[in-house]
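Handoff note, outgoing to incoming analyst
You'll be picking up this chain. Sequence as last confirmed:
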Amino acid sequence: MPKLFSLAAMKLLKTTWPIAILLTLVWSGCHTDSWRQIGRLEEINDSIRVTYAPDKRVAVYDISLLYDKGQVKIIGETNQPAALEVLEEQLLLQEIRVDNQAITLPDSSVGEMAYALVNNSVCNIRSEARHSAELATQALLGMTLKVLKRTGEWYLVQTPDGYISWVDHGGVQLMTASEQLRWSKSPQVIYLHNYGNVYADAEESAIVSDVVLGDRLVARQQSGDHVEVVFPDGRLGYVRQSEVTDFKTWKENVSATGDGVMGYALDLLGTPYLWGGTSAKGVDCSGFTKTAYLMNGYVIPRDASQQIHAGQVVDPALKFEGLAKGDLMFFGRAATDTTQQRVTHVGLWMGDSTFVHASRNVRVSSVDPASEFYDESNTNRYLGSRRYLGNERGISKWY
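Most recent structure output, in case you need it:
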């Protein structure tokens, strides 16, 4: 009888092999050359994964190889088509037959509806396609999400910062490329207060929806002290003119400064801490810094462990020196001889030994032991800071 060997079994023998790849070998007997070939194929696949999709939060590379009697079958899915091409080329160089059955995202389940416009004030985006799954991130009303695939009533989407997770159908309006382009070119307003409402009429007789800081809607016409607006799904409503501004004008005039970043940061004081939150309804530590920069015209990476790789290094001596308003401060576990650095928290430098961050809620803390706001825990686990203002490596303008 042929013997079946899987990578799971091989890992028991060679525990240092990566876990990202599954290779199944079917053959008569256990031959050293076959084991060696499996190792080569695994190394090729793993190398491509590391090159094209080192961070699974922003890239999909769920590719497996099935090896059977001199032929390799490529299965799985990826949103990195170039990686798939390189993999097939490298496998062919091994003088082995290749059957590429992998799926490139977006897949056929998406069809022409390649975009999803956020249709609620805030939509919750989860780590898995179920409501009980971890909240991974959020997106704001009017934001464009790229749709990668559909599973039932859930969509795998990619946010403007590159994050890939699942949103349920109730939070978005699907659009074709032409519909999304028409939406993006329509006159819009951006909401500039922390919270508010869209009303059924200019008399505010009923509420259509709530709105939060950074939400965008298509603007139709002014009606007294209100602006008539349109949601992505076509609903109409009225928002107070004093609470919005023209989005195009706002984009053209916004000039990110330390004071500007801190202005929005301080407006969020007291906002509840929410794991996965990136809105005025609730923020986690990196969602807070992300929101402050978004309202200054920048899309920055989603998580603290990603944010530390953008911008310019400041305060390399870790003495809280040379910092400017709006610099991102990172905290966590320093690297040792046996462990890597682990970033677990981020805040924004205010000046005068103080910083603002989301911990329990958005609040001000200090690195000065004499201050009533002294945060001993974070002071002792400070890992360094990054400056985004004037150093846009790893960040981008908002649309």
